[in-house]
Amino acid sequence: MKKTILSVSNIKVNFFTNKQFYFPWQKREIIKAVDNVSFNLKEGETLGIVGETGCGKTSLARAIIKMIPITSGSILWNDENILSFNKSKMQKIRKEIQMIFQDPLASLNPRMNIGEIIAEPLRTHYPKITNNKIKNEVKEMMVKVGLLPNLINRYPHEFSGGQCQRIGIARALILKPKLIICDEPVSALDVSIQAQVINLLKSLQKDLKLSLIFITHDLSIAKHISDNILVLYFGKTVEIASSKELFENPQHAYTKKLIASVPIPEPTLK
Amino acid sequence: MKLLEINNLKIFFDTPEGTVKAINDVNLNLLNNESLAIVGESGSGKTQLVFSILGLLAKNATATGSIKYESQEILNLPEEKINNIRMNKISIIFQDPMTSLNPYMRIRNQMNEVIIHHKGLNKKDATKQSISMLDAVKIPDAKNKINMFPHEFSGGMRQRVMIAMSLLCNPNIIIADEPTTSLDVTVQAQIMELFKDIQKEFRTSFILITHNMGIVADTCLKTLVLYGGKVMEYGLTTDVFLNPSHPYTIGLLETMPRIDREYEILKTIPGNPPNMMKLPNGCPFSSRCSYKVNDCLEIQPPIKTINNQNHQRACHVSLAELHL
Amino acid sequence: MIINKKNIEDFSKNLSELDEIKGRSLWHDARQRFFNNKAAVTSLILLSMILIFSFLGPLFAQWSNEEIDWVILGDISTLGIPSIETGHFFGTEELGRDLYSRVIQGTKISLMVGVIGALIAVIVGTLYGAIAGYFGGRIDGIMMRIVDILMSIPYMFVLILLLVIFGRSIFMLFIGIGLISWLDMSRIVRGQTLSIKKKEFIEAAIATGVGNFTIIIRHIIPNLLGIVAVYATLLVPGMILTESFISFLGLGVQEPNTSWGALISEGAGTMRYGTLWQLLFPLFFFVVSLFSFFFIGDGLRDALDPKDR
User: Fold this and answer.
1) Domains contained in chain C, number
2) According to the CATH classification, is domain A4-261 in 3.40.50.300?
3) Could you tell me the pTM of the whole model?
4) pLDDT tens digit string along A111-138?
């Protein structure tokens, strides 16, 4: 029986639209970016979160690791509610939950070489570690994600998009996390490279027993990589089901519309 | 009559780091009321190809070859002459609807600018034309919406405005450069439906540039596959999709996960996108090709026609060897 | 793509023997672009020459900057002209002192005021602006309102007041100029920080758990240095101009110290006596240095921001 490692319940994330300084009697407009979303994630599983622009998937991802404040709800990581954690307790959790971003080049500091970029999480959480050990771990990780380790001194702009994303994955994996949140990791990549990165993530997941939360707007990719899928629309849960169930038997009208909109490369003879 | 005829087109860029051969000998034809899809990834040169048609290339570009519109040479035409063609005979829809429209001008003024410049109508008539075009692209309440600013529209609506703008002078060819890449998938479906309706109603020819094979399948009659500035395969969409004859096309079709199929592990095209400054003498795809033979790196593959007249491929490896 | 594990292990054993390839950082690219810019390189050479002159010049001086040449004193307009025999290479100034040594001293002081003033602006302004921009919210609001208030105080007035109250000294000059110079820089840095803050690599650092001040120093400031360097080279002439203006008014450095502004002031005053060299030599150094700084600033901007090419 696989263990449930993440349990998100009734998350609400509200944003206010007024400026910094406002008078007490001015009503502030509320945008409900995430409106009462709940899901569970088991060890080694992948949850796909799909939705279109404005559905709140980005806000949800950042809320899970407390990068943006949560209005209400609870997030249980290994049965502890991390919302009540203070900064130092949260630091320990950050070792276990990592993130990969959409724009491969923009997610890397252009002034640091990739060795330093991949090593940063190590230096942050293990400040006493020796330089030699860091170098070895970084090189080992580079090989694991399919990069030549002798490129360790190169800078991000010297790599292609797909390679930059591998660097991002290496950085996320170096602390040996249990969960990686992938925020549209292949949307900005060429089609012929997308499959490489998806295969890499899947094989790393198998090797390292990772759980993944895979956010995407591409249903075909979500179908391939996810065990369960959560469909969001304007912050609300539209449908949550196993990948198989969702595509064979979609319940909600929006889900059906989404599935019907995906173009199939099969020309209908005119 | 061939509406658009491109022969031996080469576009080279002169940069401080070297010469970039963005397009290296491309030939294609477009007839009346025909739709062509140009499929390629980054570095294929697809955007530069259509920019050269409308004279939009950067200053450090050198374009050679021939581009004929209705049998008249339009490649490298001086500004005044190519201006008559832009938006009038050949119009273009750009990729990002957020930045294609001037945020400081009302939609009405931006659309009127096009008609007034080319057709010389007065403001009132121009506005009437614009409103009727906005109706044609199914923007609700066009009479009032036309007075709004671009930021008041959503992405999909802005793209519709761009499409309306491109139709204003009733052009013979509409070029759409990745028109749905930045749009949601449901909006994408609506826009592609709109393209199909427009083709039927206005009988314009279309050139659709994209990397998304899915949207090509139902909307375009012919498909041209570009890689590293060269044509890999060119033919009827049905032929190219159902009987792909080039390793790159086969790879592309296999590597994209389809919603109607199951996969254990995705098939990949190994390697990285081409380095446009260090292209091999032969086929630009050779370094990533799993069917590669000795000649591929050094010698340019000849363009051969297969089956019927209309299906072309540029490959050293024979069809028989590919399907083994 | 991942091949099987054994292949990877063999692969990595071979790879550890491979040499590490050197990376080509963005600074390296910028340096190359800068040295391709002829105007900037020429200015750099000129400025270096002026700097070397101010250090090596005294070796050739035959008079100190305080000594009065009594022989010439009576008839400066004819005897005080620049000549090699009398040892007054640049001629003498009104009181009979050697202009060559005075110009050297003025160069040292003016450049020092310019560079140190700019340095204070850079360090204080960058840290202040980066902190305000990164933390945002109320902290940003308060910090920037302080800057607004300080900016609205007429600085000339304050500076002159300070100099009058605490006496004229170089130290006072530094304090006065330092108090004003960081304000503009902090605004610029704050603006840049706001746009850098939105980039994904900052989000990545936050998600990793990097501390706030470490993020500011490791991630934000290195990506600001481009703008800061450009603005700093434009600040230096600004400092020199401010100091010159104050000295021109007679309130700057005290005798026997001098600066370009003071020398130009004196030279302009004696123009009608035909002793034009007293004006032209300090003016020459002043103008050449300012132009050089401007061209270097321009060159830096082009080198660091290739999108504007």
Assistant:
1) 1
2) yes
3) 0.84
4) 899 999 999 999 999 989 999 999 999 9
